[in-house]
Design a protein that fits this description.
Elements: H1 3-26, H2 29-40, H3 44-60, H4 62-72, H5 74-92, H6 98-108, H7 114-123, H8 131-139, H9 144-159, H10 163-182, H11 196-200, H12 206-237, H13 241-257, H14 259-269, H15 271-289, E1 294-300, E2 303-309, H16 313-341, H17 346-375, H18 380-399, H19 418-424
Antiparallel strand pairs: 1-2
């Protein structure tokens, strides 16, 4: 293996690990928020706000950090991010009131912006035909959400919830040191001479906003469900926190680990084909998950008969697994679109798309909580996601599928992404 290729894989592995640690810390409130909810007597809406607050900061800062990565390089930005975010994580262990958790959540939420730093950084070490795999592999760091499901309950049971933020703070500092010595200088650092305003000009491209919409559901939905599912299992099925977290990991683990597979599939079959079919898979699974626990009676000639329609946890969890896999593939295919269409502005575009996706992850838990307080049944969160996926499917159809020729053209065009098809014509 050439030295340049070996260096690229070392950068890919250590950056993915850094992102995994960051994502685990970012999802921390999804587990420790369960005892905090009881301790502070929070409503469902307040619980959604508590768990979603770190996602807000991580989302907003994705765009500027993506631009700074193009300008200063991913190595230095990622290192500083790991060091700085360890401070509010440690301080969170001393918080006692909701407003304190919200303020510290805003500060520690910066770790979520590590995605827009690592994505262009690792992509620049690989040729164009391998960037889908590289970005998908790095994106698999979202498996940190599942890692949090295993680590946080163990620490909580043994040492109290305060041990969780302290543990993550120490791990972030250790990771920062290891990252600095193993990561290579960014080959794209300083090569972007465009001004901040000119880099933001890309937002006028309608394709960017279409990719933002896709990412708001595949990543925003993944993030929101990762922090919402532990308490869902507790409230819907009555499981203990540890068991609920392990079952919730059935969603977040494949959602992270299979993202690299989604990137490889997008390299082979095209970003459009992968996005189209995974949205349909998510739509079908969410339709089933949306049905609330229902008891009803039917009058018969002999009196009445009572029936119950409900998903057992052993049927609910496989369906949730399908949604996790679909979102993982969708996250990878969305960034394959970006790598194909905006190779010179990946930092800015990935930052913007990541920011909108992260904002989805911030708003959705609050909306989940609001719907739960209003309607009173847990599956309302899946009803909301079902509607958003339906919008994504209509958008994909109107902008891409409807333009696909059916008769009178080369059959090869049927499987080509629109960008390549137009270039071929």
């Amino acid at each position: 293996m050439p030295d340049s290729a070996r260096r690229g894989y070392v950068v890919l592995f250590i950056t993915t690990w850094a992102f995994t640690v960051c994502f685990a810390a970012w999802m921390m409130f999804g587990v420790i928020g369960i005892p905090l909810r009881e301790e502070m007597q929070l409503s469902s809406t307040e619980f959604g706000l508590l768990t979603a607050t770190p996602v807000l900061t991580g989302s907003i800062f994705r765009l500027p950090l993506g631009i700074w990565t193009d300008r200063f390089g991913g190595r230095i930005i990622m290192f500083l991010l790991l060091v700085v975010c360890a401070v509010p994580l440690w301080l969170a262990s001393y918080a006692t009131a909701l407003w304190q958790f919200l303020l510290l959540g805003l500060a520690l939420g910066l770790v979520g912006a590590s995605f827009s730093v690592g994505t262009p950084y690792v992509a620049r070490f690989f040729p164009a035909e391998r960037r889908g795999f590289a970005m998908g592999f790095f994106g698999a760091g979202t498996v940190g959400a599942a890692l949090n499901m295993f680590i946080a309950p163990v620490l909580m049971n043994g040492f109290g919830w305060q041990a969780v933020p302290r543990f993550y703070a120490v791990v972030l500092l250790i990771t920062a040191v290891v990252f600095w010595f193993l990561a290579a200088p960014d080959p794209g650092a300083g090569k972007s001479t465009a001004s901040f305003r000119s880099q933001l000009a890309v937002i006028r491209d309608r394709r960017v906003w279409k990719y933002c919409q896709y990412y708001s559901i595949v990543f925003g939905g993944f993030t929101a469900l990762s922090i919402w599912m532990p308490q869902y299992y507790v409230r819907e099925y009555g499981f203990a926190v540890g068991t609920a977290a392990l079952l919730a990991a059935c969603f977040s683990l494949p959602g992270g680990a299979l993202r690299a597979v989604g990137g490889a599939m997008a390299d082979r079959f095209g970003a459009h084909n992968v996005t189209w079919w995974v949205l349909w898979a998510a739509w079908f699974a969410l339709f089933l998950l949306s049905y609330p626990h229902t008891d009803f009676a039917i009058r018969t000639v002999d009196g009445s008969r009572n029936f119950t329609i409900a998903l057992s946890p052993w049927l609910f969890t496989p369906l949730l697994f399908v949604v996790g896999v679909a979102f993982a593939f969708g996250m990878a295919s969305t960034f394959k679109y970006i790598g194909n269409d905006f190779p010179e502005n990946m930092g800015a575009v990935s930052g913007l798309v990541g920011m909108v996706g992260g904002l989805g992850g911030f708003l959705l838990p609050i909306m989940f909580g609001g719907l739960l307080d209003w309607l009173g049944f847990n599956s309302s969160c899946f009803m909301l996601l079902y509607g958003i996926v339906s919008v994504s499917l209509m958008l994909n159809y109107l902008t891409e599928v409807r333009r696909t020729p059916v008769m009178g053209h080369d059959s090869r065009n049927l499987v080509m992404p629109p960008a390549k098809r137009e270039a071929a014509q």
